[in-house]
Every structure is written in structure tokens, then in C-alpha cells.
Specification:
Layout: H1 4-13, E1 15-18, E2 22-28, E3 33-39, H2 46-63, E4 70-76, H3 85-98
Parallel strand pairs: 3-4
Antiparallel strand pairs: 1-2, 2-4
């Protein structure tokens, strides 16, 4: 996802789940899997924002095969660039489970 209006639509219509380092906005849609990653200036300078998005992208790739179809937006919080990868992974998994987006195996 790249367009501002796509992000705004998901923010308004989607369900959100929060953890200490990640926020997930999700809208279920049949047949497509779209994803976006954002980090506001509250997270820090450009280096920290980009690091946060790279870390979330990496986690998304780990779980993408087990996700339901839909539109996902992951938003970094201030703690995202500084916490350990294991803590970020736990928070990431927590928001996915709370939003019930993981498929049963």
C-alpha cells in the first residue's frame, strides 16, 4: 500500500489492536493481502523510523503465510526501534492473535 487514501480508509474502517510497541489496523477482504508499515516522527529521526519499519517487515514476512486475507497496517510506537527483537516478536504475535488474523493450522 502506498496511497494516503488507502491508509486513511483502513484507519477509519478497520479494527485496531495495540501492544507496547506495535499497533495493528486490520480490515478483512477476500482474495487479497495488502500491507503497509508506518512510523511517525514520534518514533525518532529517519534512521529510527526506517529501522522500525524494516523490523516490522521482517516479522510480517515470517508470519505472512499463516495470515488471513485482508488489509493490514502496522504502526510503530516509540519503543519499537529500541527493544529487543524477541520482545518485538512477542508484541507482533500478540496483536495478530488478538485481532484473530492467524489461520488455524
Amino acid at each position: 500500500m502506498k496511497l494516503h487514501r488507502e491508509f486513511q480508509y483502513v484507519y477509519k474502517k478497520g479494527k485496531s489492536q495495540h501492544s507496547s510497541s506495535v499497533v495493528l489496523f486490520y480490515i478483512p477482504q477476500k482474495g487479497s493481502l495488502k500491507v503497509g508499515f508506518t512510523a511517525t516522527k514520534k518514533v525518532g529521526n529517519a534512521v529510527k523510523r526506517n529501522r522500525s519499519k524494516r523490523r516490522m517487515r521482517s516479522l510480517f514476512l515470517d508470519y505472512s503465510n499463516s495470515l488471513k486475507d485482508g488489509t493490514y497496517i502496522f504502526v510503530a510506537k516509540q519503543s519499537t526501534p529500541d527493544i529487543s527483537y524477541k520482545e518485538l516478536q512477542n508484541d507482533f504475535l500478540k496483536v495478530l492473535k488478538r485481532s484473530k488474523t492467524l489461520q488455524e493450522k
